[in-house]
Write a structure and sequence with these properties.
With about 170 residues, the protein is mainly α. The protein has helices at about 20-30, 45-50, 60-65, 80, 85-90, 100-110, 115-130, 135-140, 155-165.
């Protein structure tokens, strides 16, 4: 298995104790999850994945973990490093909405407090400043751009507060 660059560690030598049919049921209720059982492990999704050499588990293995009811799938970096290019979904001979399932898994993981630190920092930065990072004056000067325009983040904060983005974690 290749070395990953995400925060999550390899599953090599990990022992999975029990299968959780309720977890599989929850996943099958996600957008795209209704066809989960149609996966027959052809691995065409993994073969076309542009991040397959960067993740600790391949997308076809994620699908198998979902079928087996292994909630440890939420600890994989595949769900966070997915580029949402939809290649897996386009290549799937069964027409499974794999990318949509990954979006749902990302939400499930986040609600359980499982997320890369960079995502959490970016979310906070977006809330505080209305952008992911504050461009510097010298960057703009190099590009011959005017000064950074002032941004009123009050409207952004209202939207984020109303949608509950900053309070998504709901540890069960």
């Amino acid at each position: 298995m290749t070395e990953t660059w995400g925060q999550f560690k390899s599953f090599d030598e990990k022992k999975f104790e029990a299968l959780d049919p309720e977890f599989t049921k929850k996943v099958s209720e996600l957008l795209g999850g209704q066809d989960l059982a149609a996966c027959f492990q052809c691995a065409k999704c993994s073969a076309g994945c542009p991040v397959s050499d960067k993740v600790n588990i391949q997308i076809h293995e994620v699908m198998r973990m979902l079928l087996f009811g292994l909630p440890e799938v939420l600890e994989t970096d595949m769900i966070w490093l997915c580029t949402t290019c939809y290649t897996c979904q386009e290549r799937c001979p069964q027409g499974i909405d794999i990318t949509d399932i990954l979006f749902g898994l990302k939400n499930m993981a986040f609600k359980k407090g499982i997320a890369p630190q960079g995502y959490i920092a970016a979310r906070q930065s977006f809330y505080d400043m209305g952008r992911l990072y504050e461009p510097t004056d010298w960057e703009r000067e190099d590009l011959e751009l005017e000064d950074v325009p002032e941004l009123n983040v009050d409207d952004t904060k209202k939207i984020l507060d109303k949608t509950g983005l900053m309070k998504l974690e709901e540890v069960e």
